[in-house]
Write a structure and sequence with these properties.
Distance between the termini: 13 Å
Number of helices: 4
Low-confidence stretches: none
Mean pLDDT: 78
Number of domains: 1
Structural class: mainly alpha
Shape: globular
């Protein structure tokens, strides 16, 4: 999880509001680490989908995050 947060800091440049929202959501997801890896990833994808639908992040940013998570959890 900490590696994901570190990688997200790279995305932070020029996108402070997005970064703060993402960091908040990821910190909330830490509470669900007891779930299996696939269940946790599904929960995270649901959060990203909500953020895309709400206009908080773009689909492009979401895809970058998914790629980061897949690399870190594979």
């Amino acid at each position: 999880m900490e590696l994901i947060v570190e990688d997200l800091k790279l995305l932070k440049l020029g996108q402070e509001v997005i970064y703060d929202d993402l960091l908040s959501e990821l910190n909330e997801l830490k509470e669900y680490y007891f779930l299996e890896k696939s269940s946790w990833k599904q929960l995270m994808l649901g959060k990203l989908t909500e953020m895309i639908a709400g206009g908080v992040i773009s689909e492009t940013v979401s895809k970058e995050i998914v790629n980061l998570v897949n690399m870190k959890f594979s």
